[in-house]
Write a sequence for this structure.
């Protein structure tokens, strides 16, 4: 069935339901960054396979809204589909919500599957539509009615991540959750995001690409823990263990009926930014909804000592893989054909050589020359550019290990560079070092630190449009809250034990993209008469390409930082290398 045929079928069904427009998001009911095939309704309907995009269908028009990383891909995949591409962020292109108010008459009905929108997203949409006298129906489950040959839910089993990796047992984590529930006056706590379920139960799975999670819901009360999951995912030993720990097993699809039947006077913790709106509307009307950041969000953000030590081990493994890759790239460029796609595949192969490797942590961004300036460039094998022995190559990648999740970007010189390329590279490096060297009082938020990564660029009239840092999970999701380092204030302070990315960049369209990314751990620094202070420790272990640096732009302090960092990289990585790879690392980490 072609996309026009699917749109025709959808419109017929909309007509029977009295719906004038339909919104299809990329999300699943758990609001996952990477949903499984079972939930990719937007992809089935439109033929667009990018990870981010929203489709809107009316009786006469259909459109896909997506961002710049997918413009080329979307153009190709939407050809002859009857669906128009709306390039988000482009001048004159309205947001899909505004488009709806402009193109629908008063009294129209807009339908959406409430399971694919957060509580706050749906509220915002409903408020906007109401101003135009348009009604929103959040009970439109189109995929159930028109999606033929829909992929089944993944049935892969789960496995336990032992306390040698997690540092805390399930029982200990649940006890802390209940303590915090009591402090908030809650009787029940609903957990719907997959990484939070996995973290609390110390289980991991393989239901979702790049993230070692599994489909499940949790409802925690002071007396019970109720787990909603496909029982086939549980081995007999895991089932027995959960029973002994008084964790009750329910069928995955019974979750919504369960919360509908909760005690009417229940006081339920719901995170409106991490819970789908159908969960909220399913709760008894009389129940008290305590809207707050999910308890587990805060707990898993501050890593314990065991998790931190395992992260350090993961960084050594990843550093070995990255060193082997960069050595291979240096020795092969100009001698064999290497494309952006084949380079990314080669890096994944080097990571796969490491013990306890469980796949990439996200789709590798591999951009040569001007493609590096596309911040979230999604390389395709058929359109990948060939690397040449000149200019800059940006590769942003990561791995999943039992010990932790990694995320690293290196921009490397493949040959001669222009003065502009070297200057821009050095400005990015100065930003990376500036943030890493920060010492700051407790209570500091990411918005206060963001300028440290940008100030050298700002002095040259340069800036970048993305955030400087995001949280990262422990053998979980590569993008994790609640902290972030960016110009926008999210009200979350940076606390000890948090692991964040440090990734300033410069992007010049048609020329080059430069980003240097390390993961940084927040540690306690000292207590003084003026309060308690924190600092960062760089966890990532991989050389920065000295050939791309204009050393005249670095201060003595910045040179010292880089030399000390490179010495640390050599000391920890070189014992695991041999021959030309060890020699390459030695040369790459020599002092400036």
């Amino acid at each position: 069935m072609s996309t026009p045929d699917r749109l025709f079928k959808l419109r017929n069904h909309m007509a029977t339901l009295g719906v004038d427009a339909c919104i299809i998001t990329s999300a699943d009911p758990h609001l996952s960054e990477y949903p499984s095939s079972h939930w990719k309704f937007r992809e089935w309907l439109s033929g667009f396979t990018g990870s981010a995009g929203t489709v809107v269908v009316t009786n006469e028009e259909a459109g896909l809204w997506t961002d710049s990383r997918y413009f080329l891909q979307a153009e190709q995949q939407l050809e002859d589909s009857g669906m128009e591409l709306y390039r988000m962020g482009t001048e004159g292109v309205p947001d899909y919500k505004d488009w709806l108010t402009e193109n629908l008459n008063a009294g129209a009905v807009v339908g959406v599957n409430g399971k694919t929108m957060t509580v706050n997203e749906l509220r915002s949409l409903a408020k906007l539509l109401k101003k135009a006298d348009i009604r929103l129906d959040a009970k439109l489950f189109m995929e159930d009615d028109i999606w033929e040959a829909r992929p089944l839910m993944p049935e892969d089993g789960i496995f336990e991540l032992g306390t040698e990796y997690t540092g805390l047992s399930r029982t200990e984590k649940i006890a802390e959750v209940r303590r915090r529930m009591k402090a908030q006056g809650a009787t029940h706590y609903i957990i719907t995001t997959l990484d939070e379920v996995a973290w609390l139960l110390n289980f991991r799975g393989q239901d979702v690409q790049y993230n070692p999670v599994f489909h499940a819901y949790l409802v925690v009360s002071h007396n019970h823990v109720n787990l909603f999951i496909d029982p086939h995912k549980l081995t007999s030993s895991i089932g027995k263990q959960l029973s002994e720990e008084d964790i009750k097993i329910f069928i995955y699809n019974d979750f919504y009926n369960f919360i509908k039947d909760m005690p009417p006077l229940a006081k339920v913790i719901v995170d409106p930014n991490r819970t789908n709106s159908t969960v909220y509307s399913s709760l008894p009307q009389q129940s008290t909804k305590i809207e707050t950041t999910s308890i587990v969000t805060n707990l898993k953000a501050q890593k314990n000592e065991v998790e931190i030590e395992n992260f350090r081990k993961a960084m050594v493994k990843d550093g070995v893989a990255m060193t082997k890759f960069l050595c291979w790239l240096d020795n092969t460029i100009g001698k064999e054909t290497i494309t952006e796609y084949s380079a990314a595949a080669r890096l994944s192969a080097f990571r796969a050589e490491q013990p306890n490797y469980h796949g990439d942590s996200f789709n590798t961004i591999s951009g040569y020359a001007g493609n590096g300036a596309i911040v979230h460039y999604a390389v395709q094998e058929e359109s990948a550019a060939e690397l040449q022995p000149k200019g800059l190559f940006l590769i942003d990648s990561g791995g999943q290990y039992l010990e932790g999740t990694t995320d690293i970007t290196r921009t490397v010189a493949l040959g001669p560079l222009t003065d502009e390329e070297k200057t821009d590279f050095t400005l990015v490096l100065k930003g990376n070092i500036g943030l890493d060297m920060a010492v700051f009082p407790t209570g500091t938020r990411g918005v206060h630190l963001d300028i440290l990564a940008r100030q050298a660029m700002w002095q040259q009239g340069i800036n970048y449009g993305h955030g400087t840092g995001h949280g990262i999970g422990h053998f979980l999701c590569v993008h994790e809250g609640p902290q972030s380092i960016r110009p926008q204030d999210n009200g979350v302070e940076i606390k000890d034990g948090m692991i964040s990315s440090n990734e300033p960049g410069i992007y010049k369209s048609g020329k080059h993209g430069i980003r240097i990314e390390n993961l940084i751990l927040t540690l306690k620094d000292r207590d003084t008469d003026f309060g308690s202070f924190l600092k960062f420790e760089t966890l990532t272990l991989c050389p920065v390409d000295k050939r791309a640096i204009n050393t005249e732009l670095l201060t003595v302090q910045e040179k010292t930082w880089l030399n000390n960092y490179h010495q640390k990289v050599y000391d920890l990585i070189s014992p695991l290398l041999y021959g030309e790879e060890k020699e390459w690392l030695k040369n790459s980490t020599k002092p400036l």
